[in-house]
Write a structure and sequence with these properties.
The structure holds two protein chains of two kinds. Chain A has helices at about 1-10, 20-30, 50-65, and strands spanning about 15-20, 30-35, 70-75. By secondary structure, chain A is of the alpha/beta class. Chain B is α/β, with parallel strands linked by helices. Classes of the chains: A alpha/beta, B alpha/beta. Strand 1 of chain A pairs parallel with strand 7 of chain B.
Chain lengths: ~90, ~160
């Protein structure tokens, strides 16, 4: 997947990749990666957890707007759960 | 985070010894618009395909380098999962395809105004391609050309 990202980036379109295996990402070195703390098969967190999936996507897309040096390998920051939904 | 230690010994030894290829993409591309104005494309390597499309070919020992186009209007729960690796636990993705291909979430982000829009087609490859020569020279550049054709501003890629 990192290779596909690299080819697209080379063609001039910025990419960001979700990474489940940092060790592999550090070898392939695609331009921007968000390393997520989930098992293989679960890149966006949990099934039917739109809230968590959305946070993964938002943190990944934020790397596209970052000015940091490339390659960029960031860790997913877990989201604080709201303490109570209602009073 | 999964680490190589979570994998079966055979997979781990393979990945530790495997000479990963690197494609030189430097200096990197820039997002030319703000995200809220940008058109995005999603690319998965979970081997997803639609029932009417040709399944990925598991008989190619070095890996099937082909790709499938997923139209933006696809009901993603219809997608079949062709990735054969036993390291990929498909249970979660079978329950909710957004786990590997979150097109529903991206549609919501468009509605929320956080991204500008989605391209008319998205893409799926097979993961775990052992001999990626054809992927690098042929099929990934083909997708890059389609992205240019669709005026895509940025791409989100996800593994299985």
């Amino acid at each position: 997947m990192g290779l596909i990202a690299s080819v697209i980036e080379k063609a001039g379109i910025p990419t960001v990749s979700i990474s489940l295996l940092r060790e592999v990402t550090e070898k392939v070195r695609p331009p921007r990666s968000l390393c997520v703390p989930f098992p293989i098969g679960y890149p966006f967190g949990k099934p039917n957890d739109a809230h968590l999936q959305m946070h993964v996507i938002r943190q990944a897309l934020a790397l596209l707007e970052s000015d940091g040096p490339l390659p960029m390998i960031e860790d997913f920051r877990p989201v604080q759960q709201a303490t109570t939904e209602s009073a | 985070m999964a680490t190589l230690h979570d994998l079966k010994l055979s997979h781990r030894l393979f990945l530790q010894a495997y000479p990963f290829r690197h494609v030189d993409w430097s200096p990197g591309a820039q997002l030319k618009k703000r995200l809220q104005d940008a058109t995005l494309t999603l690319i998965s390597t979970a081997g997803l395909y639609l029932p009417e499309q040709t399944p990925f070919n598991h008989d190619i020992r070095s890996g099937d380098c082909s790709f499938r186009e997923i139209p933006v209007e696809t009901n993603i729960q219809d997608l079949l999962i062709g990735h054969p690796s036993p390291a990929f636990d498909k249970a979660g993705a079978l329950e909710d395809r957004n786990l590997v291909f979150p097109l529903d979430r991206l549609r919501e982000l468009v509605e929320l105004g956080e991204i500008g829009g989605l391209s008319r087609r998205h893409f799926s490859f097979m993961g775990g391609i052992i001999a990626p020569g054809r992927l690098i020279k042929e099929t990934a550049p083909e997708v890059a050309a389609k992205l240019e054709e669709d005026h895509v501003d940025a791409v989100l890629l996800a593994p299985a």
